[in-house]
Amino acid sequence: MVELLQWGRAGRAELQGQAVAGRHIAVLVQKHEQGRLIQESLRAAGVAGARQGQDSVFASAEAEDLERILLAIAEPGNDGRLRAALATPLWGKDARELEDMRLNDTLETAVWERVDAYRRRWERDGCMAMFRQWLQGEQVMGRMLLWSDGERRMTNLLHLVELLHQEEQAQGPGREALLRWFARQRQAPVGSEEHLLRLESDADLVQILTIHSAKGLQFPIVFCPFLWSDEPGRKDAGPVICHDPDDPLTLLADFGSPRQEALRQIAREEEAAERRRLLYVALTRAQYRLVLHLPEGLGQQSPLAGLLGGGGKDFSWRVALEGLAAAAGDAVAVVSLDDRAEAPRWTGNTAPEKVRAASFTRHLHMGWRVGSFTALSSGGRGERPDYDDTIPAPDPLSGPGPVAFPRGAQAGICLHSILQRWNPQRGEEDLLVHIDTALQRYGFSTQWRQDLRQWLPAVAATPLWQG
């Protein structure tokens, strides 16, 4: 990937006339842990990557550190809480500085006075004003952005304080109530869409996402580093969850019945089928280039190995892929990674473009006056066209009902999001919550709320087959 980015910067790799950049690349993984591993590896190579998933910002390390800081500011006289807050990466005091404070009353008093000033600001002006004063007074941003993942951490911190401010505005002033709310979110970090981790930048970031999340999406270049994995998702012991062979629409949970082993085999077959479906999704997301990383000697029982001709202990990725490449011509290439002592590192643009602020030469009249629409439009030239007349009439075939819902990939993702998250057993209230969230997130009018309320239960209740 680093070499591909270097080729793009040198003009050797282009996509439709544009140099290949991070925004053209996606890395698909099977689990969120793999996504974290890829992001750390890219960061070590100097490549900025954005991991997309369902992680809550309240589950981040910054949430834990911020809670300690808020508790210390709320009660500056508690020496244990204060030292725990000072030792967090956000505040940045090391063991030597903490020991110097313990031995030097002047230093300790200076720190206590600053913390007490933050407390008074919180009482007077609220959490957000206190946070901004603390951020500047402790030089937090400048220190954090020196770290390799500083942008990620700073994004999490600002996101958390924004959520605190929203809650404070909703419930009114009161430190204790706000701290209890924050503690509840930390203990059970499963909330609304606004609690999910945000992208840390709008720059040319490599996207890292799960194969599940990539359904319905396409990317110019896709890397799949873990398709060789043959690790089973279900255990060979304990309860078995599968579909009832006598009623395929019913899900069973078997905790030890006489037919548990037979059901376990059905569960294995269902899991294998799901893994094959995910393999298909991963292999069909790339528009121009798909890159697979396949370690020889591993993954012989994976779905990809089965797709390439079998598996077993004698299976060889190179042999299977060279046969595929011979049949595919120039469409497939098999390349061995170099045995280099050090991997290449991306250095970005070494000479950033120099920019200069535009000069403003107009003269603005600073006086105020009361005007009217008639006066403002008096200099117009005749009647302006009525653009509403140019809007085409609705298709007479698309009357009320599901066919009237907007078409396109965005609409499909919106409906898929609702059906994926809605639990029919929780009733209509749960459905309406997910409808409202999806319509807002994907930019559709709330006028579809009642229509979706009627259509989607009918979709969920439709049998998939007869017999």
TrEMBL record:
Molecular function, one GO term: exonuclease activity
Pfam family, one: UvrD_C
One GO-annotated biological process of the protein: recombinational repair
Record key words, sorted: ATP-binding, DNA damage, DNA repair, DNA-binding, Exonuclease, Helicase, Hydrolase, Nuclease, Nucleotide-binding
Residue ranges of domain UvrD-like helicase C-terminal in the record: 1-216
Annotated transmembrane regions: none
GO CC annotation: cytosol; exodeoxyribonuclease V complex
Protein name in the entry: Exodeoxyribonuclease V subunit beta
InterPro entries assigned to the protein according to its UniProt record, in alphabetical order: DNA_helicase_UvrD-like_C, DNA_helicase_UvrD/REP, P-loop_NTPase, PDDEXK-like_dom_sf, Restrct_endonuc-II-like
